[in-house]
């Protein structure tokens, strides 16, 4: 899935409430294979407790694009479910681990401020 500028930037997507492929899929018009794939991939998704940005997210802008494109391929049946595991490992190795550490630190700080 490709977004046109400026909506190809994560901050603009979040302003519109577009957080992931599953949240923007209009299921009324989806073929059965897409609905089945959404159901399957939804089993493995976890709601985020953090909706913000960290410095690492700015350093690795293509990470989110990779996640969206992989999920879109799997959901539409254009790619196998195994692509998700491959994408997760690439994500971690290419900046995702740094993003995760920053998010966890920021989340912990938010919890301490409560």
Question: What would you note in describing this structure?
Answer:
- The protein is mostly helical and 114 residues long.
- It has one domain.
- It is 64% helix and 0% strand.
- The protein has six helices and no strands.
- Helix 3 packs across helix 5 and helix 5 crosses helix 6.
- It is globular.
- The mean pLDDT is 77.
Strand percent estimate: under 5%
Mean of pLDDT: 77
Q: What is the global morphology? A: globular
Structural class: mainly alpha
Key features?
mainly alpha, 114 residues, globular
Could you give the topology of this structure?
Blueprint: H1 10-15, H2 21-24, H3 32-42, H4 55-59, H5 62-76, H6 82-113
Helix pairs in contact: 3-5, 5-6
In short:
The protein is about 65% helix and about 0% strand. The chain is mainly alpha-helical and about 110 residues long. The model has no long low-confidence stretch (mean pLDDT about 75).
